[in-house]
Amino acid sequence: MIVAFSVTPLGVGEDVGEYVADAVRVVRESGLPNRTDAMFTSIEGEWDEVMAVVRRAVAAVEERAPRVSLVLKADIRPGVTDGLTTKVETVERHLAQ
After folding, report:
1. Coil, strand, or helix at residue 83?
2. Are 7 and 40 in contact (CB under 8 A)?
3. By CB distance 3.0 to 4.6 Å, which of 19, 40, 41, 72 could disulfide with 9?
4. What positions does the domain Thiamine-binding protein occupy (predicted)?
5. How far apart are CA 64 and CA 78, in angstroms?
6. For the segment 20-72, what is each residue's pLDDT rounded down to a tens digit?
7. How far is CA 5 from CA 92, 95, 96, in A?
């Protein structure tokens, strides 16, 4: 499964990059395939391991922010691996034609 999620600290002002970095650090230290862009961090793995990482990422932000917003989107597709790479490669292949 692939989960794309965004953790946003609330009540800490406009500059939230430092807080978001805490969440992304948790994801990167998990060892699971992941990718971060301007809006979301995507992570790939089995349900329990991915959700545990999301929970820890939220907890990292909760430690310093009075309120946290979580947006999550999941692609649950058993048997598929390396979706973070292959989905993008498919789109790029079509764009190149």
Report:
1. helix
2. no
3. 19
4. 3-92
5. 36
6. 999 999 999 999 999 999 999 999 999 999 999 999 999 999 999 999 999 99
7. 23, 26, 29
Residue 92's pLDDT band (boundaries 50, 70, 90)?
A: very high
- The number of angstroms, rounded, from the C-alpha of 60 to the middle of its chain's C-alpha atoms is 13
Burial of 5 (0-12, 13-18, 19+ CB in 10 A): buried
Tokens encoding 96: 């190149």
Cα–Cα dist 19/29, whole Å: 16
Q: DSSP assignment, residue 33? A: -
Measured distance CA(64)–CA(12) in Å, rounded: 9
- β-strand pairing of 34-36 with 67-75: unpaired
> Residue 45's CB: how many other CB atoms inside 10 A?
19
C-alpha closest to that of 42 among 8, 4, 7, 70: 4
Per-residue DSSP letter, 63: T
Report residue 10: phi and psi, to 5°: -115, 145
